[in-house]
Design a protein that fits this description.
alpha/beta, 33% strand, globular
Length: 197
Amino acid sequence: MTVENEGKKYDLIASAYAEIRNSFATEQQYLDLLMNYLKPNSHILDIGCGSGFPIASYLLQHEFQITGIDGSKELLKIAKIKYPPMKTVCGDIRTLELNEKFDAVVEWWCLFHIPQQDHEKMILRFANWLKPNGILEFTTGDQEYEGKNSNMLNQELSFYSLDPKQYEKYLHNAGFKILLCESDQDQHLVWIAKYEP
């Protein structure tokens, strides 16, 4: 069963969401770690980029090329106004096609809107979007989880995660070497992996 793209739900709350997504939580320290692995002017794919803040905007400040993907047309409109150098693509990350490879892929607070049965597929898609020796930085929950809540501006959203051991298996099978996996906040893990096909 294909679950509808959650980005369409963000269309309904785009302006308010962009206003509250106005500061770093723990992202900056991990983006700094990511940049240590990259050459100047590297091309980074930001998955679930939203309005472009804080991740794409921070990477643009450091003179990286950014392509952002999001399922919300309204959030991407905001991103294009605020960050004109950023290339944007609207679509469902499970199905959209990209015709280039990237030096790094960043996914933060996006995979958890994708149903569990698609997470292995997404790890393979991340690999397919990377150049050899490219770097993947992504986030997951710290345990298997599936549920819904309306904590985000009273908009009901779905949330999913697998057991971390499953992600380790999927990364290994896709050709990744895990460089880091640690908890940055309650029930949330940050992963950094190098693609070594």
